[in-house]
Specification:
The structure holds two protein chains of two kinds. By secondary structure, chain A is of the alpha+beta class. Chain A is 30% helix and 15% strand. Chain A has helices at 6-12, 25-32, 50-77, 97-102, 138-141, 146-150, 177-180, 206-212, 243-249, 306-332, 344-347, and strands spanning 80-84, 109-115, 124-130, 166-167, 170-171, 186-191, 194-196, 257-264, 273-279, 291-296. Chain B is an alpha+beta fold. Helices cover 45% and strands 15% of the residues of chain B. Chain B is elongated, with a radius of gyration of 37 Å. The chains are: A alpha+beta, B alpha+beta. At the A-B interface, helix 1, helix 2, helix 5, strand 4 and helix 8 of A face helix 11, helix 17, strand 14, helix 40 and helix 41 of B.
């Protein structure tokens, strides 16, 4: 521990020259006599009397229960279509899914039919959802170079990007595992035989586009190695406009995550069918990852999530219960405030 | 320069050297200083002794020297030989010297640089002085041999008076430059870092930071991980640097002061730093001593000097120092010769042993002949002395060390819990490592291809198919373990140590600033000398208190006297009629402000003294007061002008008595009030003004007071040529050496009767709480005198065991004394002592009084300070043998049904000692005092007694144990300790009387070693130092007896009654605050770590942090630190009024209610569920969503900061403005930091 030598300073700081220095009483009194030094500053000492405790619990309950109810209602209003297709899109005669997905010569186009369970108001958000994909793995999270992404002049800056750092001695832009493994399944939607256009703009954070990915940084040497990780990028489009990449590179916090694919600005009716044509390119088979396509509406709360509402309701309910229990206790067996019998030395009379 | 070679002095010894010259190639550390000078300029001389020159070379480089213009080979060789001749002897001396020097002064570089300057001066002065000096080279050389052969083990230090060159010819003594600073500009950085890394915490930081630099473990960014360490190092370095700069400044001032030093035959001014051992220095009045000097002469023809040792031991009274008569004559002839042999530098400022050789005469030198650095000369025009210790070797410098650091009870508990936390840390890390292992094992086949793991390079070229950052399963698991250690590092709350320091500084600030602990009478406020044990003040169970000066004021008042069997002074209390009282205070008050000089004079006694000197009683009274005036070490100082006592001192009050013992002062003042004024005191004589008539007594010898004899005697020759020994001492030691027969060898019944009545008086004095002394005297016959004189002379010049020899000499005269009388001195209780003790006892603290006083005095003080109450049963143990003590203890225990720890053994012993132990229950005699009867153990030698008050129900009655030092000797040294412990701990009050300083420590140790209870020792005198150092908490009273106790203490204050406030209020607060702060810190860090831990379980065990590096660094540094400190300093559970009004509230600390194992585990469970909520609520809320890792991290950061601050807020007992600011400010600061971090482009979550 840090040794502060106050004692040394005041008592024998200068060795033999130390004298017993005593400030004059006048100075001392001036210095000492304040409410602060005497530890007598005006203070507020909250005492948890039964009334206080019960009111606080009631208050919390009163606030939390409505919030919980509102959240649950909002969550229930969200219409969500989740279609897991990683198994379904592999032909049933294929035994080795990994070999299948890695074989680039086979066409992997797959058709899915989705039924709309309820009316869906636009905008409808299209997400892809991956399970068991550890975008938060330490080796993965760090495998990027933000300087390179931001600044065209730092194209050769590839530290931390191993093992996707260079190709034939040339720096890869964007380097690193994250970019290398960008999701590359594609979806096209048909609604009642009409093509349903997907708006793929503005799916990434604006600040990412403006500040983290340079508008003059172009992909270079990307996905040119022997092992293709995922999406290839058009070398003529700057990174700031490669929104799929930008979305992907905002790594997910948890191993099951969704990423925004695009938006559909069409209202869907209940029992409508949507046909999805998708290219099942992305390899999740090597780690038993699930792939799902998600269409979802949104509310003020965001997507579908019952947890938050339930959590609020639980806590609020608990508070009501405690308030009730304490009130009962207070009415049935009241305790005098400041009862000495409850002091620690009176409770166990045996002493120490 | 070249013509002057100090070493030529000893060249006469070269005659016998050629034989030794044949073997020069020894590793000659010893003489290198003599030779290096020559070596650096003409190393060619040493062709024949290569090894030697090699050895010197490094030294030689370090010491740049002026070379002699021409150095002829022969002389250098000669020099070498002469030096070599002393080789064997010097080797050992020098080695130890060297080592020691290195320890004292840190910088070897500085040491070396200093030497040449002092040497140059020395050379110059010696060149001019040379003609004055008699040739004594030859003697010197042989003398060396003698000295070392006979007294090798004493290893004396040789000082040649006024011959600094020769004194320092081997540069073994340090110069007078002092350096309390630790660093120089160059050494600051490495040395400061080195010292800082002595702290384990910093090493932990460093190891963690170093681990993080390894590529596979780089959890944090490199800068972020170094930041906390660098920050702490930087702050500490700034602080250390500032302190050192202040020391440099004061050193510089100190070193550049000037003093008159004998140079070229007269005294010239010289800077302190250039003074070196052996030089003769002259100091004028009110100047400060530059170094430790042996007095050679003073302005007083008798060689007396008065010094004030305020800077050294804090005592403001004047002390006398004497120059030896032999040297005084030497000085008057301006010839400075002689050789002083003194002991090696040591820290004991109260002892000095040396001899001076002058004209083949050995003169003993002792403590009274030396003046120490830092002392001031007072009332003496000038002194001349020779420097014996300079610079770092002076006693003042050797004493200027910081008191050792103690660690508090709470901290040791905390360390125990830290071990639990370490275990916890290891478990979490193992979980992560195991998980990592399992995960890797499950995915072994796919590792190469996993898009988020990618084990191999798949590039064309050199690195194709090589593993990237993969070191095999075992190593990966290991690395995973280490990475988790890095992440979870704050589980071990390193920051807590720093926080605790800060909190303690704050607490100390408030303790120091408490006006209710400011002693306005002495102007001393509370001092915290130790910063590590503030919270121990809240857990004290035992207080060991000194009596004199601690419970009492140590302002002695002469109250009663028993002269020749008649009691005087007691009537004063009965008839406090002003006509009977004559106060001399009126006349003396203008000179002496202290009330201790006000004494009441007994009219009867005064009348007796007015009678002509005739009759036994009158003579006894005469001798009685002569002894009071003569037999002491008090110095009469004329307050008006110089102590030049040739002129008449007519006024009564013109003399101020300066003494080291307040008792003696009181006695001398009393004597002067009765007309026996001590007017002059020198080593040779005493002048006493007896009722206006001056008597000059020649002092033939003085046996100072020591704790073995417990008496003091002075042998004086009266004007009528009779020789008398005057003795005063403690009654136990005096009553046994009184005569029982008269001159004819017959039993003197009259004297016996006097003794008996005096004893009665003594016991009644003691019961009134007076300190008693017995006065005796004896005529010495010529034979007795000459025998004693012979022994005395021999003893006082002895270098070895001087004190034992002196004791033997004293025994020759201190026998068969005639009793003159006894004195009773009152020592008043300090203000508020009874109330304080009462409160402390209510608080569950056991107060033990350990005193050197008599049993009766101790008991009466015990009664008056409400330690003993009437309802108590007292057990008195004063045995004079082991068996006796054993049986007394056993009986007492049996009587009061005290269970002993080893009951079986006890029973056997009871049987064994059954017949020996005759319990003498003495209820009948114990009537007067209501407590017990008085017995004088010294007289009734075989007195064994357990005085037990029988009572129908003493099971629940309070017990008091009174035990004397004599019994303690048997008990503490034998295996009776546990018996005493059992007995003593079941007693409410324990009073130990007649205890020696070391016994005090022994008693403290008895409790300390057998219980985990905290002990506090409080005392004011040097005799309490051992006790203060032994106890867990030592408190010093800034009292009359100097600063020894204060210097050794952890806390110091003006009065005993402050102890109540210190313990009940500040102790309680400190304890509660610190206890809560520790728990809270554990909680705070554990919540954070667990939150990280849960997350890592969801990252494939890869030790990812959702938080940014900086957030994790700032968490304990910025986000949550300030409220902790503020609450640790300011929070109060109860107001001081409540705490003082209900002392039992203190028991919370005694029962460890603020911090204990249960609380720790509860806190940990609290941590567990809070962290689960903290982690899993956001987890479930944002599971399966587009939430990205940095947003989630920010959410968690804010959540955890708010959580722990709200947790703290809920636990705060008393809100003041500062608390509000700290808590809400911290949360605000967190938001601010997060925004700042996110808006700086280089961070990953920028934007």
């Amino acid at each position: 521990p840090m040794v502060l030598r106050i004692a040394e300073l005041t008592s024998f700081g200068a060795g033999a020259s130390a004298s017993t220095h005593q400030p004059s009483p006048a100075i001392q009194n001036h210095m000492l006599d304040s409410k602060f030094t005497q530890q007598e500053l005006p203070a507020c000492k909250p005492i948890l009397t039964p009334k206080w405790v019960i009111s606080v619990f009631l208050l919390v309950g009163v606030i939390f229960v409505p919030i919980g109810v509102a959240s649950l209602l909002a969550s229930n209003k969200v219409v969500e279509i989740v279609d897991r297709y990683d198994d379904a899109c592999v032909p049933s005669n294929v035994t080795n899914k990994l070999a299948y997905i890695q074989n680039s010569t086979i066409s992997k186009t797959c058709r899915r039919t989705l039924k709309v369970p309820k009316d869906m108001k636009q905008p409808i958000f299209v997400y892809y959802q991956l399970n068991n994909f550890y975008q938060n793995h330490r080796r993965y999270v760090k495998s990027r170079n933000d300087q390179q992404l931001r600044d065209a002049s730092k194209a050769n800056e590839t530290t931390l990007c191993d093992p996707e750092k260079t190709r034939d001695g040339m720096a890869i832009v964007p380097c690193g595992l994250i970019a290398w493994s960008t999701f590359n399944d594609t979806y096209t939607f048909q609604h009642n035989t009409n093509n349903l256009s997907i708006d793929k703009t503005d799916i990434s954070w604006k600040s990412d586009r403006d500040h983290k990915f340079g508008s003059d940084v172009f992909p270079k040497n990307f996905q040119k190695g022997p092992l293709i990780g995922g999406k290839t990028l058009n070398e003529s489009i700057p990174l700031s406009e490669q929104e799929d990449l930008i979305v992907w590179m905002r790594t997910a916090a948890l191993p099951t995550f969704r990423k925004l694919y695009g938006r559909i600005y069409v209202d869907l009716k209940e029992n409508d069918t949507i046909t999805v044509t998708l290219d099942n390119n992305y390899n999740t088979y090597s780690f038993d990852g699930k792939k799902s396509l998600v269409l979802s509406t949104s509310t003020w709360l965001g997507g579908k999530n019952d947890f938050l509402g339930l959590a609020y309701l639980t806590v609020g309910g608990l508070c009501f219960f405690l308030a009730f229990a304490f009130t009962l206790l207070y009415l049935i067996k009241p305790r005098k405030l400041g009862d000495n019998n409850y002091l620690s030395w009176n409770r166990n009379s045996a002493g120490h | 320069m070249s013509t002057v070679d100090p070493l030529l002095l000893s060249s006469s010894g070269s005659a016998d050297s050629p034989s030794k010259h044949t073997a020069p190639a020894r590793p000659s550390v010893g003489s290198l200083n003599c030779l290096c000078r020559a070596d650096s300029c003409s190393s060619s001389v040493y062709e024949d002794c290569d090894t030697a020159s090699v050895n010197f070379a490094d030294e030689g480089d370090a010491i740049p020297r002026h070379c002699p213009e021409e150095s002829d080979v022969s002389r250098v060789a000669e020099r070498f030989q002469s030096a070599d001749s002393h080789f064997f002897h010097r080797l050992s001396v020098e080695c130890s010297q060297k080592e020691r020097q290195r320890k004292i002064s840190w910088g070897g570089v500085m040491e070396m640089q200093r030497s040449p300057s002092s040497l140059e001066v020395g050379v110059v002065s010696s060149s001019k002085e040379k003609p004055n000096r008699p040739p004594r080279g030859r003697n010197k050389s042989s003398h060396f041999e003698d000295l070392f052969s006979s007294e090798q083990e004493h290893d004396p230090r040789l000082i040649h008076i006024n011959d600094p060159v020769r004194t320092n010819d081997r540069y073994e003594f340090t110069g007078n430059e002092i350096r309390t600073s630790k660093y120089t500009l160059i050494t600051f950085l490495p040395k400061n870092l080195f010292i800082q890394f002595h702290r384990l915490a910093y090493v932990y930081f460093l190891v963690i930071a170093a681990l993080n630099q390894l590529p596979p473990l780089a959890v944090f960014g490199r800068t972020a991980s170094l930041f906390p360490l660098l920050f702490v190092l930087f702050v500490t370095a700034i602080k250390d640097g500032y302190e050192d700069w202040r020391r440099h400044r004061s050193d510089r001032n100190e070193n550049n002061r000037e003093a008159l030093v004998l140079q070229h035959g007269d005294f010239r001014s010289k800077k302190w730093k250039h003074i070196c051992a052996g030089e003769v220095v002259k100091i004028h009045s009110n100047e400060t001593m530059p170094c430790d000097m042996v007095l050679l002469g003073t302005s007083d023809p008798n060689g007396i000097a008065y010094i004030q040792t305020m800077n050294l031991d804090g005592e403001s009274n004047l002390k006398t120092r004497y120059a030896r008569q032999e040297t005084v004559t030497m000085i008057s002839h301006s010839s400075y010769l002689g050789l002083i042999k003194c002991e090696q530098p040591n820290r004991n400022i109260y002892e000095f042993t040396a001899t001076m050789e002058l004209n083949n005469q050995r003169i003993p030198l002792g403590q009274s002949n030396i003046v120490l650095r830092g002392c001031q000369l007072k009332n003496t025009e000038w002194i001349i002395g020779v420097v014996v210790y300079a610079g770092q070797e002076t006693k003042a410098m050797l004493n200027s060390t910081i008191s050792r650091s103690k660690s508090s009870n709470l901290e040791s508990y905390m360390n125990r819990e830290t071990l639990w936390l370490s275990a916890f840390l290891l478990i979490t890390c193992s979980v992560v490592a195991t998980g990592m292992g399992v995960w890797l094992f499950k995915n072994t086949k796919n590792l190469d291809a996993l898009p988020y793991y990618r084990r191999k390079y798949f590039t064309f070229g050199r690195e194709n198919r090589k593993d990237f950052e993969f070191y095999g399963l075992a190593l990966e698991i290991f690395f995973s373990f280490l990475s988790s250690v890095i992440i979870f590092q704050i589980m071990i709350p390193i920051s807590l140590y720093i926080t605790m320091e800060l909190v303690r500084v704050g607490q100390s600030y408030f303790m120091i600033g408490d006006t209710r602990m400011y002693d306005s009478s002495s102007g001393s406020r509370f001092q915290c000398r130790s910063l590590n044990i503030n919270e121990d003040l809240g857990q004290i169970r035992y207080i060991f208190s000194d009596k004199t000066g601690t419970l009492t004021q140590n302002k002695m008042e002469f109250q009663q006297a028993s002269i020749y069997g008649r009691n005087y002074g007691s009537s004063l209390q009965v008839t406090s009629d002003s006509s009977h009282e004559i106060t001399i205070a009126e006349s003396s008050s203008q000179h002496d402000r202290k009330p201790k000089s006000e004494i009441n004079v007994d009219a009867l006694l005064l009348a007796l003294l007015k009678q002509p000197l005739f009759g036994e009683e009158r003579l006894a009274a005469h001798d009685f007061f002569l002894t009071l005036a003569a037999c002491n070490t008090v110095i009469p100082v004329s307050t008006g002008g110089s102590p030049d006592l040739t002129n008449e001192v007519s006024e009564v009050g013109a003399i101020d008595y300066q003494g080291e013992s307040p008792d003696e002062q009181a006695l001398v003042i009393a004597a002067s009030a009765y007309g026996y004024k001590l007017v002059e005191r020198t080593t040779g004589h005493i002048v006493i003004d007896v009722q206006g008539e001056r008597i000059r007594l020649d002092v033939l010898g003085l046996h100072e007071f020591d704790s073995v004899r417990k008496r003091m005697s002075v042998v004086v020759r009266f004007p009528d040529d009779t020789v008398k020994v005057l003795v005063k001492g403690a009654d136990t030691s005096m009553l046994s050496i009184l005569r029982t027969r008269n001159h004819d060898g017959l039993f003197d019944s009259l004297h016996a009767k006097t003794i008996e009545t005096t004893e009665n008086h003594l016991s009644s004095y003691s019961s009134e709480g007076l300190r008693t002394l017995v006065i005796g005297s004896k005529y010495l016959s010529n034979e007795e005198f000459s025998e004693w004189q012979e022994r005395y002379e021999e003893a006082s010049t002895s270098m070895t065991e001087r004190s034992a020899k002196l004791r033997q000499a004293a025994a020759l005269v201190e026998c068969d004394l005639t009793l003159l009388g006894a004195t009773g001195i009152e020592d008043k209780l300090q203000d508020g002592v009874p109330e304080a003790i009462e409160s402390l006892r209510q608080a569950g603290i056991k107060v033990w009084v350990l005193t050197g006083d008599k049993q009766e005095t101790a008991i009466s003080i015990g009664l008056s300070c409400r330690l003993l109450t009437q309802g108590m049963h007292s057990i008195i143990i004063n045995g004079s043998s082991e068996i006796e003590c054993r049986s007394l203890l056993a009986d007492a225990k049996a009587k009061f049904g005290i269970k002993s720890a080893d009951l079986g053994k006890q029973d056997v012993e009871d049987l064994h000692n059954g017949d020996v132990s005759k319990l003498r229950s003495s209820n009948g005699q114990a009537s007067e005092s209501g407590i017990q009867n008085f017995q004088l153990t010294g007289v009734i030698a075989n007195d064994k007694s357990v005085n037990i008050e029988e009572s129908p129900n003493f099971d629940d009655a309070e017990l008091a144990l009174i035990i004397d030092g004599n019994s303690l000797v048997y008990i503490l040294e034998k295996d009776l300790e546990s018996e005493l412990f059992d007995l003593a701990t079941s007693c409410k009050v324990v009073i130990c009387c007649r205890v020696a300083p070391l016994q005090k420590a022994g008693i403290v140790d008895l409790i300390k070693s057998r219980t985990s209870d905290m002990t506090l020792a409080i005392g004011d005198g040097a005799n309490d130092v051992s006790m203060i150092q032994m106890a867990d908490v030592g408190v010093g009273i800034c009292g009359q007896e100097g600063r020894q106790a204060v210097m050794a203490s952890d806390f110091a204050m003006g009065q005993f009654c402050f102890l109540k406030r210190l313990l009940l209020v500040h102790g309680h607060w400190n304890y509660q605050r610190m206890a809560y702060m520790i728990l809270y810190n554990f909680y705070r860090n554990a919540v954070f770590v667990l939150m990280l831990f849960w997350y890592i379980l969801h990252t494939a065990y890869s030790a990812t942090l959702a938080l940014t590096d900086w957030s994790s660094v700032f968490y304990s540094l910025i986000y949550t630190s300030v409220p902790t400190v503020v609450v640790g300093i300011l929070d109060k559970d109860l107001s001081h009024n409540t705490l003082l009004y209900y002392p039992r509230l203190y028991e919370a600390g005694l029962r460890n209610e603020g911090y204990n194992m249960t609380l720790f585990w509860i806190t940990m469970l609290d941590t567990l569920w809070q962290s689960l909520v903290l982690f899993y609520v956001p987890f479930f809320t944002y599971n399966i969503s587009t939430m990205d890792i940095w947003s989630m991290g920010s959410l968690w950061t804010i959540a955890v900061v708010i959580l722990v601050n709200i947790h703290l807020a809920m636990d705060i007992q008393r809100w003041v403005l500062i608390t509000h600011l700290a808590i809400w400010g911290s949360i605000a600061a967190t938001f601010l930091c997060m925004v700042l971090i996110d808006s700086i482009p280089i961070f990953p979550n920028y934007g």
